[in-house]
Design a protein that fits this description.
The chain has helices at 14-25, 62-69, 91-108, 129-144, 164-171, 192-204, 206-209, 224-235, 246-260, 271-276, 300-308; strands spanning 5-9, 29-34, 52-56, 74-77, 113-117, 149-153, 156-157, 178-181, 186-187, 190-191, 213-216, 222-223, 241-244. With 318 residues, the chain is an alpha/beta fold.
Length: 318
């Protein structure tokens, strides 16, 4: 086992757990941070005994961030949220101020490599607070740690994703159609394991990638409607897809978003997400991407049927 210690913020999320598993395979020691360390205990079996340590860190409290980074040579920030909820789960606090706190602490502690997971569409002028705070986080990271590697993935798919799994569940609800906002909006779905592999290659050859932004997308571009049609085909369900105009979707998004601030619910849609859906989520033609890492991205057709099989009428026997 390597003596090199990697601190990962957001290690229990979809991307974080894929990174932990690969780093363990390469012999790194992992310090997986969380505001609720017990929720990250499932990561321990990914490595040998003692290889993965779970520890408390609240990125809104500088002293806990510094303590989590002490002794680490590599820091990876996977923190991000798709909607705001009660308490401190706010875009500004996590994606902008939190990213800044991690980068400053990494610089102060003499960290060799900092990898920051952002998102395609990060933009200071976006009407979406999600996209604006992603851009603010990138700016703060570059200011504090100029050699940081920044990765901007498109919508991420994998066994634990919140896209195909969510809509497959909706498709199983009797009678009700599947609502879709922005059916013509384009996406470039990227496999979670490909994103994790890009992180690993940046960790193992940081000098080659440091100081750059890489935009990561899969091999194909699909409209939102095409992705839903494909999901229905995979699970063998016939369902009406109901396009929702942006003004109506915005009203419902605002309403769901409001309730999420007072109740422990996951909103099916927020006003901020409606704003995001007005723009394509694809890799620009001039951007650096997977080719810089020597990675051939994986198609949804190679992976999605394997984990959506549970939604088929008779599972694997359909």
């Amino acid at each position: 086992m390597s003596n090199r210690l990697v601190t990962i913020f957001g290690a229990s999320g979809q991307v974080g757990r894929a990174i932990v598993e690969r780093l363990c395979h390469h012999g790194y020691r992992i310090r997986a941070t969380s505001r609720h360390p017990n929720e990250a205990l499932f990561l321990k079996p990914f490595g040998d005994p003692g290889q993965v340590q779970t520890t408390f860190a609240d990125i809104s409290r500088e002293e806990t961030v510094i303590k989590a980074i002490e002794g680490a040579s590599i820091v990876i920030n996977c923190v991000g949220i798709l909607y705001e909820s009660r308490g401190r789960q706010k875009f500004q606090a996590l994606q902008a101020e939190g990213a800044a706190a991690i980068a400053k602490a990494a610089k102060k502690e003499g960290v060799r490599t900092l990898i920051h997971i952002s998102a395609i569409g990060a933009d200071q002028h976006s009407p979406s607070q999600y996209a604006r705070t992603k851009w603010q986080g990138e700016k703060a990271v570059k200011a504090a740690f100029p050699k940081a590697v920044i990765l901007r993935p498109s919508i991420i798919f994998g066994p634990n994703d919140s896209f195909f799994n969510l809509f497959a569940k909706m498709a199983k609800i009797p009678v009700f159609p599947i609502p879709v906002v922005g059916p013509k909006t384009r996406f470039q779905p990227v496999y979670v394991e490909d994103v994790a592999e890009a992180v690993i290659r940046a960790v193992m050859n940081s000098g080659k990638y440091q100081g750059n932004i890489y935009q990561l997308g899969g091999p194909e571009v699909y409209t939102f409607r095409e992705l839903l049609d494909y999901m229905l085909e995979v699970i063998g369900v016939k369902k009406f897809i109901a396009p929702i105009p942006f003004p109506i979707a915005g009203f419902f998004g605002w309403w769901f978003q409001l309730w999420a601030k007072f109740l422990p619910i996951t909103p099916p849609l927020t006003l901020d997400q409606v704003q995001l859906l007005k723009n394509d989520n694809v890799v620009p033609a001039t951007a650096k991407g997977f080719e810089a890492f020597g990675i051939k991205p994986t198609s949804i057709t190679s992976v999605v049927p394997g984990y959506l099989v549970r939604f088929r009428p008779r599972g694997r026997f359909t």
